[in-house]
Amino acid sequence: xxxxxxxxxxxxxxxxxxxxxxxxxxxxxxxxxxxxxxxxxxxxxxxxxxxxxxxxxxxxxxxxxxxxxxxxxxxxxxxxxxxxxxxxxxxxxxxxxxxxxxxxxxxxxxxxxxxxxxxxxxxxxxxxxxxxxxxxxxxxxxxxxxxxxxxxxxxxxxxxxxxxxxxxxxxxxxxxxxxxxxxxxxxxxxxxxxxxxxxxxxxxxxxxxxxxxxxxxxxxxxxxxxxxxxxxxxxxxxxxxxxxxxxxxxxxxxxxxxxxxxxxxxxxxxxxxxxxxxxxxxxxxxxxxxxxxxxxxxxxxxxxxxxxxxxxxxxxxxxxxxxxxxxxxxxxxxxxxxxxxxxxxxxxxxxxxxxxxxxxxxxxxxxxxx
Length: 370
Hints:
Layout: E1 3-14, E2 20-21, E3 27-28, E4 30-40, E5 45-50, H1 62-76, H2 84-94, H3 99-116, H4 121-124, E6 133-134, E7 137-139, H5 144-156, E8 161-165, H6 170-183, E9 189-193, H7 200-209, E10 216-218, H8 224-231, E11 238-240, H9 247-256, E12 261-265, H10 266-269, H11 272-284, E13 288-292, H12 298-309, E14 331-332, E15 337-338, E16 341-342, E17 353-354, E18 364-367
Parallel strand pairs: 7-8, 8-9, 9-10, 10-11, 11-12, 12-13
Antiparallel strand pairs: 1-4, 1-18, 2-3, 4-5, 6-16, 14-17, 15-16
Helix pairs in contact: 1-3, 2-3, 5-6, 6-7, 7-8
């Protein structure tokens, strides 16, 4: 089986609930997605997607992915998409760094390989560990009263897991989290996510003032060592997210004892294949794990769901349903969501049926003669 055609699209995916707000005035109105299709010489098609959250969240940006995919794609024509390790090494040889550029291409290869095997992707990722994964909802940064009301509404909708955005003015964020915790039932799981927005000094101020609250601290500072310095005086679990981009980071975090859990984002690591490798090692090393991405609609969410449900349940933290965030629909048979839990679609590969007519005209279209 060989890759015969490659198409790539760029698609704006506006948020249903308006701007997504983080601390320090950072916000986005939509995911700016890049979507890739790979069609093999036996007529099967695999799909991949990457969608950064603005230009402020990570080094990824859609225009960069668009330019990079155009550079890499010609090298993949005629290659066997099932040879995932070879494909990954080839992309690293012809295009150094920039893992987010390679993410959608690798995802499409994984989808295509699973479709060729007539198996759901979850099987190729190690096997299905449970039927569904618990979802969390985000309380974005804003006025104290607004955040408390949003948290209360989310819980009334049946969700028990909240990610509360902090990382701005410390005193204000102390008020925000205290108000949120007071607005929801005891036992609601709360993650305070600073998105690397604080210095260790600020993070320790926040932690000291909120010792009476029950929450998990998520990525308070930019670097592993800065987060470790906070963890040494912390009486709560810590999860690192932005600090995990490659194998060396994971090993450094483990060696230093810098975190209890990790959030692995597909596009940040460079695709489903490399994320699966880090996920398996993280599980073996005893970390709690969340597998997600920086954004996207049905394609990316399906990949997240397959990776989540192939993560041992006792090591899985939670998941997120990004396809429910946006106003556009790119596929039928999306990951099914019932209440606060998400499953995976039935069928081979990602299990979804993408609707190419929804994607617009491709910015890249390459073919190889038989």
